[in-house]
Amino acid sequence: MDFALQRSGLDKFLSLILPDGMDLAGLLLDLGFDQEQVDFLVAGHLEPVVSQFIDAVQKRLPGSSGKDPSFYLISRRFSLDGEVAEPLETIAARLDISPEYARRLSEDALESCRTKTALEHFRKALRFIVIAQLASIAGRPPRERVADKLERLSNLRGASTVAHLDYDSKKAGILKKVQDELDALDAEYNPLFETADGNIHDLEAEIKNDVLLFGESIQAGSVHAVFVQGRVSWDNDGMEHYAAAHPDILQFRKQGKPSVTLRSVEEK
């Protein structure tokens, strides 16, 4: 097994499932390990981390039982086993499946690794793998190192709080000016809106009554007053009892009330 191939393959695999094409080193930094710790691991202590992390990936994918070759496809495609990567066509032939099916399985496996749940699993697994590795070879970090970071964090939080307070104060001043202008605008236009809406409501009611009296649809301007005849229905019980014997069956005919709807019409 060639660790360089395995590491390179893992970086390529991660770049396809992580945001912004992140590789293993980038993921370690994103998890909160500082540059010194990452450099220490990369310098010669990364192999167990890579091996255990690939095991964690395998547990998230089908194939460990032999019923689904998804992990095998991913492993061979990206050299996760430390051997020279192979094209999907070659892997498919070995598995006695079509290249199209192999490609679909491979893409489905990658897609399943991109889910929020899978990514959270990978991040959590890698964090504890790296912590265990650092603890076994470097031991506990010096207290002074942790205390120094806590002091820096305290200073950063303090500066952030001051900046947020300053921002909130200035934002409130701006909003106050804008709110005064908005209140003045509402005072100017709300009476106009209320009058216009009231006139529209009253006129719509008048139009509906007129169209009901007119008995036909009418269009003018951008409004179409659609006259709809009332729905015709029949007394089914009456039909069953009298339809065959009585020619005056229309006495059971019932007609609903007509209605009018107003629709906007696109002007040509």
Q: Regions with pLDDT < 50 over 5+ consecutive residues?
A: none
Radius of gyration: 37 Å
Backbone shape: flat
First and last CA, distance: 74 Å
Q: Which series of helices and strands comes N to C?
A: HHHHHHHHHEEEHEE
Structural class: mainly alpha
Overview of the molecule:
- The chain is flat.
- The chain is built from ten helices and five strands, in the order αααααααααβββαββ.
- Helices cover 66% and strands 8% of the residues.
- It is mainly alpha-helical and 268 residues long.
- The strands form two sheets. It has a three-stranded antiparallel beta sheet, with helices on one face. It has a two-stranded antiparallel ribbon with strand order 3-4.
Please outline the helices and strands.
Elements: H1 3-17, H2 24-30, H3 35-42, H4 47-60, H5 70-77, H6 88-95, H7 99-113, H8 116-138, H9 143-214, E1 218-220, E2 223-228, E3 232-234, H10 236-242, E4 253-255, E5 259-264
Antiparallel strand pairs: 1-2, 2-5, 3-4
Helix pairs in contact: 4-8, 5-7, 6-7
Q: What is the compact description of this entry?
A:
The chain has helices at residues 3-17, 24-30, 35-42, 47-60, 70-77, 88-95, 99-113, 116-138, 143-214, 236-242, and strands spanning 218-220, 223-228, 232-234, 253-255, 259-264. With 268 residues, it is mostly helical.
